[in-house]
Design a protein that fits this description.
By secondary structure, the chain is of the alpha/beta class. About 35% of the residues lie in helices and about 15% in strands.
Length: about 475
């Protein structure tokens, strides 16, 4: 059966746009019409920039007609998480305090995507300040696979828009799991790059030392294509790394001979739902059949980081919101307000202790990668929970839920989230591969081989 236009891969659409089979205006019009028809019920977008998108598409069609060079994302419609600065376009960060804020420049990643030919359809929703829940004034996005299931946080709009065919790709940010959770819940590929691989200039922070920006797409090649455009040193971000950027797309389609995948079976099973453990085991069998070796490893202890994540996040979040907190406290929702109060009251000693734990974990994990090219793990301790998950804090707190995500935000190691089919209820299953720092290319190669072997090509039936 032919794949409808809105569910074609970003890379396929780009190739057809470059060949002249498609026009950028026609593709953009089709996507805008789909957003107008479906997003009132899915609620992924906060701002649709239809006029700007069509003007941009027309200019790109003219560029092709004139024989000018075309970028790696020529004419492809994408969405931006609404914490990324967009010149002349409201950037709310999911908050009331920034509801009318209009930046006067683009974030570096936005500028790079545009320079590569991307067409921005609009800004998609996120939880308030990129933390745990949407502001009470905001209607959360709806998971297109199952409306009663969680969309993941904080990049909820990014996950829903791409999964539902309302964008070919979107940007997410990850501080404690916010690329991996929505990618897992929405059946997407998500790359959380190495800390510093992608500039954070122009991204409103949740916690600067933990924040990562990365692509969320429907295929590995699509994510590789977007990452290649976004990555690279930026003089506006002093934490960005000077390392050369590989051709990530060239890594797709390669074999896995000589690749070793590590797994710590105690780590992936402690406190984890059996069906989630089985997803990882299924994925390892696919990778083994594709030519990789599976090696037992011992994960370094990360309990302190998991338990202390709210301290690091809260302290740095309070710094980020110093201009409006507590002076405009009445405009904040309860969850972000709670984090800010917690951060203000946190002990400097406790914060410093976590920095030492971060250094130890990073070094020990670096040593673990002397044996393997990636480590397999769940993204979450369970299948996607119900939509009220964020309001039902378990007795042991939220720490167990971030045990497979937060440590790699602390250490800065890259990850790729990959879908592993659907469960019996039609809900996406997923796992992640964690790689050595600056080795996104290896993750792309392994993810591509896994994708080719596993064959996940389902789409939510929402039409």
């Amino acid at each position: 059966m032919d794949v409808p236009l809105h569910y074609l891969s970003l890379s396929d659409v780009c190739r057809r746009l470059k060949s002249g089979e498609f026009s950028a205006v026609a593709v953009t019009e089709a996507m805008l019409a789909r957003i107008e028809r479906l997003d009132p019920s899915l609620r992924s977008y906060v701002t649709v920039t239809a006029e700007d998108a069509l003007a941009r598409a027309a200019a790109l069609d003219a560029r092709r007609a004139n024989g000018e060079p075309l970028g790696a994302l020529h004419g492809v419609p994408i969405a931006l998480k609404d914490l990324l600065w967009t010149d002349g376009i409201v950037t709310t960060c999911g908050t009331r305090v920034l509801a009318d804020w209009v930046p006067d420049e683009d974030a570096t990643v936005v500028a790079r995507l545009k320079a590569a030919g991307a067409v921005v359809l609009g800004k998609v929703k996120l939880t308030e300040g990129a933390f745990s829940n949407h502001h009470p004034d905001v209607e959360p996005p709806v998971n297109p696979w199952a409306s009663e299931r969680w969309t993941g946080v904080s990049s909820s709009g990014s996950g829903v828009s791409v999964a539902a065919g309302l964008a070919y790709g979107a940007l997410g940010s990850d501080t404690g799991g916010s690329i991996r959770f929505p990618s897992a819940c929405c059946g997407l590929v998500g790359i959380k790059p190495t800390y510093g691989r992608v500039s954070r200039h122009g991204a409103f922070p949740l916690a600067e030392s933990l924040d990562h920006i990365g692509p969320m797409t429907r295929t590995v090649e699509d994510a590789a294509r977007m990452l290649g455009v976004m990555a690279g040193q930026d003089p506006k971000d002093p934490t960005s790394l000077p390392a050369a950027v590989p051709n990530y797309v060239a890594e797709t389609g390669g074999g896995l001979a000589g690749f070793a995948v590590g797994v710590d079976r105690d780590y992936i099973s402690a406190g984890v739902a059996p069906e989630t453990v089985e997803v990882v085991e299924d994925a390892l069998r696919v990778l083994l059949a594709a030519g990789a070796r599976v090696v037992d490893v011992r994960m370094p202890d990360c309990a302190d980081l998991v338990q202390g994540w709210a301290i690091t996040c809260g302290v740095e979040c309070a710094l980020a919101h110093a201009a409006t907190w507590p002076s405009r406290e009445d405009e904040y929702g309860p969850d972000l307000a709670r984090l800010l109060k917690f951060g203000q009251a946190a002990s400097a000693t406790d914060y410093a202790r976590l920095e030492r734990a971060r250094e130890r974990f990073r070094a020990e994990l670096d040593a673990t990668f002397s044996e393997v090219q990636a480590i397999a793990a769940p993204c979450m301790i369970s299948p996607p929970p119900l939509t009220d998950f964020g309001t039902r804090v378990p007795e042991e707190g939220m720490a167990p839920f971030i045990q497979f995500t937060a440590p790699f935000d602390y250490s800065g190691h890259p990850t790729i989230t990959l879908p592993v089919g659907l469960d019996g209820d039609g809900v996406p299953r997923a796992f992640q591969l964690v790689g050595p720092r600056l080795e996104e290319a290896a993750l792309v190669r392994m993810g591509s081989a896994f994708e080719a072997a596993a064959g996940f090509d389902a789409h939510p039936e929402i039409d």
